[in-house]
């Protein structure tokens, strides 16, 4: 199979399953996000090692997986970690660095990379759970629609960037970071995202979530999420360039690693949560 065929086959299998899990929500969604966060944190740790650092990789993986699970527990009213517990986690990581890295093992770098990996992966992916159970989401359909909105804009930006980049791309966007990205691709991805945003807010949100965006807000939402997604992609490319690797791993056929697949979402999910909280309004009846 060609790389494109592998990517298509994986997407056809994975996408319906992911939508179903988002629809059912609850523990299933929390576990999916925890697994994705753990794998992404593991790959981030390998990027750090390839770049010459030594993060506390096992700690990063475990803590990243715990973040979505704690968010789920908090929603159920079972346990919401207080700030004091979070501070104890930081102290525990520092203590482990003391024994495993010592003064000569670059402990500051190890602790910083470990804690950053937790926030960058588990923290940002947890916003998918937050969108599913947003205060505006009254049922499974509305919660799923709110999660689907930023994901569709992210994917639309990627597809638009690829098509316009292949068709019109001449001038490179940031060649030192991502040689394949072009200015035409960036603009094309932004245009596709704006179109999707306007159409989704006009037809899908009122039907499935009883919500809508004003046309001007829909345009602004599409622009900001497209820019955010492209920055997220470039940020991961920057990290991979420093590590000297093409993909974060080879876990997903035709797609590279988990971090390669969620890099844009790590920016668009939290951005969407904040913007939708400010912009959404009830759909007219």
Please characterize this protein's 3D structure.
It is built from ten helices and four strands. The chain has two domains: 6-133, no CATH class; 139-285, no CATH class. With 285 residues, it is mainly α. Helix content is 76%, strand content 4%. Helix 6 packs antiparallel against helix 7 (183-209), helix 6 crosses helix 8 and helix 7 packs across helix 8. The radius of gyration is 20 Å and the shape is globular. The strands form two sheets. Strands 1-2 form a two-stranded antiparallel ribbon.
Task: Kindly list the characteristics that best describe this protein.
mainly alpha; 2 domains; two-stranded antiparallel sheet
Write the layout of secondary structure elements.
Blueprint: H1 3-24, H2 26-50, H3 57-76, H4 83-100, H5 107-132, H6 140-168, E1 172-174, E2 178-182, H7 183-209, E3 211-212, H8 215-243, H9 258-262, H10 265-279, E4 281-282
Antiparallel strand pairs: 1-2, 3-4
Helix pairs in contact: 1-6, 2-3, 2-5, 2-8, 3-5, 4-5, 5-6, 5-10, 6-7, 6-8, 6-10, 7-8, 8-10
